[in-house]
Design a protein that fits this description.
9 strands; 3-stranded mixed beta sheet; 177 residues; alpha+beta
């Protein structure tokens, strides 16, 4: 009889723990669902943005910036003129359709490319602040934040910054990765 009582206590304890875990999981999932509609500032992959870049059209109401070598930068961004870019990483560029085509079409793209090299830079309310383009690797995206007074900060991907740091360390002879 004592063995049956202990077994019943173990079953009850296991049932209570399982129920608590399920409740906790439901609370977490409900929290995720509740915030799913909220939009944070950031850089979001977009086929529409990719198509915009691949049309080589320069938007007159945007300022253009690049990061990387002049011959072929790693990233290009376009920021709507009503916003002020505060990041010092970016170099302003007087972009023309010809220059944009030269940067993007190495090697020349032929036909449809399913990868989204472009992205929207969005504010916290989902408004489009600008456009992002990753010239070399379609998976690379930075981050963006919108501050007071339409101040925009855009960073390059951490992976890119880490590679640059490693290259600098490697050339100094300290670390070779």
């Amino acid at each position: 009889m004592k063995h049956v009582a202990q077994t019943n206590k173990k079953i009850l304890a296991t049932t209570i723990v399982s129920a608590l875990v399920l409740i906790a999981l439901q609370v977490v999932l409900a929290g995720c669902a509740a915030t799913g509609g909220l939009k944070r500032s950031g850089v979001y992959s977009s086929q529409e943005a990719t198509d915009q870049w691949h049309s080589f059209e320069i938007l007159p109401d945007h300022n253009y910036y690049c990061y990387g070598p002049d011959a072929r930068p790693f990233f290009i961004i376009a920021i709507a003129k009503q916003y002020n870019l505060t990041s010092k990483l970016w170099r302003p560029v007087d972009l023309t359709p010809e220059r944009l085509k030269k940067w993007i079409d190495i090697p020349p793209r032929v036909g449809y490319d399913p990868r989204t090299y472009g992205a929207d830079i969005r504010g916290p309310n989902g408004e489009r602040i600008g456009l992002w383009y990753s010239v070399r690797d379609w998976r690379d995206k930075g981050s963006a934040t919108l501050g007071e007074g339409n101040q925009v900060a855009v960073t390059t991907p951490l992976r890119m910054e880490e590679q640059q740091r490693r290259r600098t360390i490697s050339t100094s002879g300290v670390l070779d990765i």
